[in-house]
Amino acid sequence: MQLVAAIVRTSGASLLADLGSGIGYSTLWIADAAGPGATVLAIDNDPSHVAEAKETASCRGLENRIEFETGIVAEVLARETRQFDLIHDDAWFARAPDHLETMIGLLRPGGVLTMANWFLLVDALTRQPSNDWDAFAGPAWAEDTMAYARSLAERDDLAMTWITTPPLGLGVKSADRR
Ligand SMILES: C[S@@+](CC[C@H](N)C(=O)[O-])C[C@H]1O[C@@H](n2cnc3c(N)ncnc32)[C@H](O)[C@@H]1O
């Protein structure tokens, strides 16, 4: 999240989303880095996670920068009409999520996408799983992860790249596409 926060700071994003915000670790990093005046839409489908995230945000004095939504990312994003400067996606695992097209559609031209969970790609490419991903994501996790990465790399509305340490996907929406 230190790297994501650096990207948030340098991008100057003022409307951001944190998908799969969990108990708020990523949300707090993003809200803090975005600064006063920014808004972070934090979405998670687990009400207990959202409740804990709200409490921590309040303790840190960041609650005014965060809109918490309890629900499935694809459903919450489907109701959105705003164009986001930066979206952080931690609500996918091993394959393309249901919210992929809506998420990219909501990024403004030139908007930034940061993606967690790409340790799966490192593990797939090195064929050295750091965990029992079969149990978490099924036996096709490696092929599915690589297929998802390939499909992102081939999109003409997104310039996408990956770094391995820390494992992070980074995309920028094409400036001439909505
Ligand atoms: C790895 S955890 C998130 C960690 C969080 N970003 C952080 O840094 O603390 C993934 C979270 O995504 C949520 N999640 C997964 N898929 C989701 C979906 N389709 N819609 C909403 N929430 C989802 C889970 O409830 C879980 O809290």
Could you write a compact summary of the structure shown?
The chain contains eight helices and seven strands. It has helices at residues 2-11, 25-34, 47-59, 73-78, 100-106, 119-126, 133-137, 141-153, and strands at 15-19, 39-44, 66-70, 84-89, 107-115, 158-164, 167-173.
What does this structure look like?
This protein is α/β, with parallel strands linked by helices. The chain has a single domain (2-173), classed as Rossmann fold (3-Layer(aba) Sandwich). It has 8 helices and 7 strands. Strands 3-2-1-4-5-7-6 form a 7-stranded mixed beta sheet, with helices on both faces. The radius of gyration is 16 Å and the shape is globular. The two termini are 27 Å apart. 35% of the residues are buried. The mean pLDDT is 96. The chain binds S-adenosylmethionine.
Quickly list its features.
178 residues, Rossmann fold, 8 helices, alpha/beta, binds S-adenosylmethionine
Largest sheet, in brief, is: 7 strands, mixed
End-to-end distance = 27 Å
Highest CATH level, the class: Alpha Beta
CATH level-3 fold name: Rossmann fold
Tally of individual domains:
1
Shape: globular
Identify the bound ligands: S-adenosylmethionine
Described by its quaternary structure, the protein is single chain
Query: What's the β-strand tally?
Result: 7
Unreliable residue stretches: none
- Helical fraction equals 40-55%
Strand order of the largest sheet: 3-2-1-4-5-7-6
Class by SSE composition = alpha/beta
* Residue share in β-strands: 25-35%
Mean pLDDT: 96
Instruction: Report the CATH superfamily.
Output: Vaccinia Virus protein VP39
CATH architecture: 3-Layer(aba) Sandwich
